[in-house]
Design goal:
Blueprint lengths: L6 E3 L5 H4 L9 E10 L11 E13 L14 H5 L9 E10 L3 E5 L2 E11 L5 E7 L1 H12 L6 E12 L2 E6 L5 E4 L4 H9 L8 E2 L13 H4 L5 E2 H6 L9 E2 L4
Parallel strand pairs: 1-3, 4-11, 7-9, 12-13
Antiparallel strand pairs: 2-3, 4-6, 4-8, 5-6, 6-7, 8-9, 8-10
Amino acid sequence: MMGTRIHCSIKKQHLKRYDNHLSVGSWKFIEEFNVTNSIGQYRTTKHCYRISFVKDTIVSNYVTVSDSEFLDLVRFSQIHEGIQNQSILCDVLGQIVNVGQLSTMHVNNKEAKKIDFELRDEHDMRLSCTLWGNFANQILEATSKSETEKLICLIRFGKIKEFRDVKSVSNAFDASLVIINPSGSQIDNFVHTLPDDGLALTVLETKPKKEILAKTEDYWNQFPMVTVAELKELTKVQAASEGYGYNK
């Protein structure tokens, strides 16, 4: 079953009222709400309008119409070619083929876990991804347990980023969802179309940081200390540790 997705938001002061009435996958009948234009960054759907709950909004149960996840998968080519609107969060699906090491970054004076990895689609096109926080731990755990099986990753409501003309996908704070080896007809169709080349997961090693050693006195004593004036008088090539000069 096909469906149309629309963004819906609830103000913080009304959250507790609807907390027990809304769950992922359930069907609801909603009455009395506001409809406004959908603008700005990080929009969850392509719909031109959005729904906003008010204090009089009524939510009641409804019969299950479909078990579909209503994925709106974006092709990697649409991202790389700039066709996909970067202001709209997107769903991407791919096989994890390369994964880096979990690293700790300092963001806004706080430590945050980060992991970089690469997805490929059925055409063997690659897409770089970066996930933060618990999502990074989720990828690390999944790839650590994987040996030869294909790891399929679904990122829902991912954020498209661009740096030096290279586009990638990241999580949009905690609004995103990351599912490893999801189920569903769309997922099964995708897995069957992947190249049958036996490509295994590659874990990329982090390059060790070069250790900077302080030069000792014996090292510097190898080079005579000369002035700029003396350097100008040199007739052969030789090394100097420091030079001093004074211009009037």
